[in-house]
Amino acid sequence: MKIVRSATPAVVRLAFLALIAAPAARAQTTTMPSTLRYGSGLLDIPVASVLPHLAITGTYSGFFVKMDRRVDVNASGNASGYGPGIDKFFQDGSVTIGLMDRAEAGVSVQSLNSEAEGGNILGFYGRLQLVQPTNQGIGFAVGARYVTAPSYGTGVEYQPGRLGIPDERFRKEYTGLSETVNTQLTLYGVATAHVRGFDDGFLPRHDLTLSVGWGNGMFKDGDRLGYYKFADSEGLFL
Q1: Which residues are within 8 A (CB) of 153 and not within 5 positions of it... i.e. 6 or more apart?
Q2: Per-residue pLDDT for 117 more than 60?
Q3: Most buried residue, 51, 175, 191, 202, by CB count within 10 Å?
């Protein structure tokens, strides 16, 4: 089993901070943390839970990318040697609000750069809970993420990578590749099993959850590119 991973293996996440301001959950059976960018979930993995009505979550994350050299990619999407490295701190933030104890929606600011560095990248996302667990059980939700594409002013169409940051190697079209890469729009379905924790005096009060789902876009596209497919899981996330 694979978890969807970053498309940049040298990324080291040094810090991320979540600031949560929410009233006590009314329709929730399990409180879930926020993803780094797209509402309730774990890192980049969504869950079937949603925020309580009008609860608001703000999230900030930051990470360093430091490499002495990077893989160059030719017009066919294949590695063609090595180019200059990168040493940069990336950061992003998002705000999510719960709606009617059944949905949540939000916006993210994923990159604010000059055109030479990919321009501005914004995100919009939402999730609808179709099946709501009570006490114990399984919840199911469907969701969507839309991330604007980076632009370098070259006339070439680019796409956002799995981290939602600009990368001039990641294009929409490649020579000889019949399918276009489209990671701007991601649609997914996810199920989350909620299980009450063990009743043991040695353990603090806790719940257990297991989430599994499938999505396209950022979860799947790019799997035909040699330098990018190492993290391919055919859209499955766990």
Answers
A1: 115, 116
A2: yes
A3: 51
